[in-house]
Design a protein that fits this description.
109 residues, alpha+beta, 3 helices, globular
Length: 109
């Protein structure tokens, strides 16, 4: 089971981000996915982490599924480092997402 080291991002946060960018709230499932990807790409680009992160779905220990902006993965074939990055790499995203601590490890969904 692959694990990802990153920050969780809820669908609602991503929808709100897209609305702030001038996009309508999604009406269909396809619109929803497009909106989520657009908003994730925007926040990753704006914070300068786009080129060294991946956007993945993960599951918490309680079984809830979230999106994760990942900086590392337990599987080296995923194209991410296998260890946590230094704080200066994730700090801009941490501030944009208003997170308190460093990223955490989560299982792939």
């Amino acid at each position: 089971m692959v694990k990802y080291y990153g920050y969780l991002v809820a669908d609602e946060w991503l929808y709100q981000r897209a609305v702030e960018l001038g996009h309508p709230r999604p009406k269909t499932y396809d619109d929803s996915i497009d909106t989520i990807i657009l908003a994730s790409r925007d926040v990753r680009t704006e914070t300068g982490v786009y080129t060294y992160t991946k956007f993945r779905q993960v599951k918490t220990l309680k079984g809830k599924i979230f999106w994760c902006i990942a900086f590392a993965a337990s599987d080296p074939w995923d194209g991410l480092p296998t260890s946590a990055p230094p704080e200066e790499r994730y700090k801009p995203l941490k501030e944009a997402l208003q997170k308190k601590g460093p990223p955490r490890w989560f299982r792939a969904s």
